[in-house]
Design brief:
The protein is built from 11 helices and 10 strands. It is α/β, with parallel strands linked by helices and 327 residues long. It holds the Pfam family Aldo_ket_red.
Length: 327
Amino acid sequence: MRYRTLGTNGPQVSVVGFGAMTVAPVYGGVEERDATETLLAALDAGVTFVDTADIYGAGYSETLIGRTLEKRRDEYVLATKFGGNQDANGILIPGMGRPEYVRQALDASLSRLRTDHVDLYYLHRLDPTTPIEETAGALGELVQAGKIGGYGLSEVSARTLRRAHAVHPVRALQTEYSPFQRAPEDELIPACAELGIAFVAYSPLGRGLLGGQVRAADDLEAGDWRRNNPRFQGGNLERNVSLADRVATLAAEQGVTSAQLVLAWLVDRGALPIPGTRKAANARANAAAGDLALDASAFERLEEIVPPDAVAGAQGNESYLANLDTA
């Protein structure tokens, strides 16, 4: 595994992290034993960057991490998020960017995680009712108090990122980025490079499409939220699976899996991908991508196979898109 600094003057982290949404019942059911084994396998394979959020399984992911990794707390950089709770219609609950809520949410997460600090604390989604300057100020105070090592933002525009950074330096920006989601290349990635902010890529495998596990709608469990995602519906899914098959052919020629090829591409582009999985074997295979040295021609061919506008379907449904800061 290779390692990289998390933003300016941040801690060293593995270039491939672990996204812990998958160890909560978000993509359908998950056995606690399997989730525990997967977390431990990731750390044992050299992963030192674990990412979660308070809404993953209504606190389940944080609780599991706290219970499973409490005695290994000094072995990894821990990131969690607040401010992503939604109402029955899938719209963000207002007020989650207010300073008093920020402090309240952090204390609850610390309790579930069984730790006295988190290394990186993200605003999960921009609160449209609170100026980002107020939220950034509160997060800066938590940095000064030693309760968080640094703070990050998730799914915000370059404009919002700059406004927050002017109040207190942002350590990391997290957004969806993969061969199936190239929009961050236009403004966000250049802004992060300019400001010295780490770029963390969630859903780096196209929400599972580029991992090869999803080939038909029936492959998704009844409780899997992806059933409502346009990219997993009808003709969109068929087109996207076809693209994924072409990536798999290229990966086989390189002697790696599709997931490893995509993760290596992201690392080569300077991103820190945080793939998730519910299987220990997949966690080990994903971690191995952090030490791959593929020829640049393989990445060029990947970009030819999946050009920026190739994926079919929107990034999410209407309510999902309404919660993103694109201004």
